[in-house]
Design goal:
- The chain is mainly alpha-helical.
- It has one domain (about 15-80, about 90-180).
- Helix content is about 65%, strand content about 0%.
- It is built from 6 helices and no strands.
- It has helices at about 15-45, 55-75, 90-120, 130-140, 150, 155-180.
- The two termini are about 30 Å apart.
Length: about 200
């Protein structure tokens, strides 16, 4: 995932700008944490002959939350895998109609994942995270007691974020169609020509 280019459409309001900035900050800090933990793990294993038993588990949990929190940004930037064979040859209203037909079952599937994900996560409220217990116990002498629920709930949270992005993208495109302006969402199709790539030769 790469940060948005300067040519991308600006956020619609301050909340969206703050939301994007917070998630990009979380992406950088979480990736730095994963790299730092794994470097310490490698150094401890090969230099001191003793590995950190909690490193891999903690990095896995950070990566899970990173994936589901940033999936909405990936959708907004158009970085999710998409297959578009005939979209560019159709008129803008027809393209939107096709996108709406495709988005409806996607939204329903995301709703099911949110509903069932919350139920599934609720089954692990009494089970604690071993890595967090070990780290907190080493510092304070007692386990943290953080339930595994905080790991499993990342799935419905991420699906809810993605669902919000899909719905907002559709609403933005409807408004753009009515006003006759380009869609605000970067993943929405646009009739405007794209600027030439910086790598293109003159």
């Amino acid at each position: 995932m790469t940060p948005p280019e300067p040519s991308a459409a600006p956020p619609r309001n301050g909340f969206v700008q703050l939301y994007t900035r917070v998630l990009w900050t979380f992406a950088g800090l979480s990736m730095a944490a994963i790299v730092g933990i794994m470097l310490v793990q490698v150094a401890a294993r090969y230099l001191f002959g003793s590995s950190l038993i909690w490193a891999e588990e903690l990095c896995r949990y950070i990566l899970i939350w990173q994936t589901f929190l940033l999936i909405g940004i990936a959708y907004q930037q158009g970085e999710l895998v998409a297959l578009d064979l005939i979209g560019t040859r159709l008129s803008r209203p027809l393209r939107f109609l096709i996108r709406l037909i495709v988005s409806l079952p996607v939204c329903y599937f995301l709703y099911l994942l949110i509903e069932t994900g919350l139920v599934h996560a609720g089954r692990f409220k009494s089970q604690t995270i071993p890595a967090i217990d070990f780290i907190w116990g080493s510092l304070t002498g007692r386990p943290a007691g953080l339930p595994v629920w905080w790991v499993y709930v990342s799935v419905p949270v991420g699906c809810a974020i993605l669902l919000a992005h899909v719905v907002v993208g559709l609403v933005d495109e409807v408004i753009a169609l009515v006003r006759g302006t380009p869609a605000a969402a970067s993943n929405a199709p646009s009739d405007a020509p794209r600027p030439p790539s910086s790598n293109a030769q003159a």
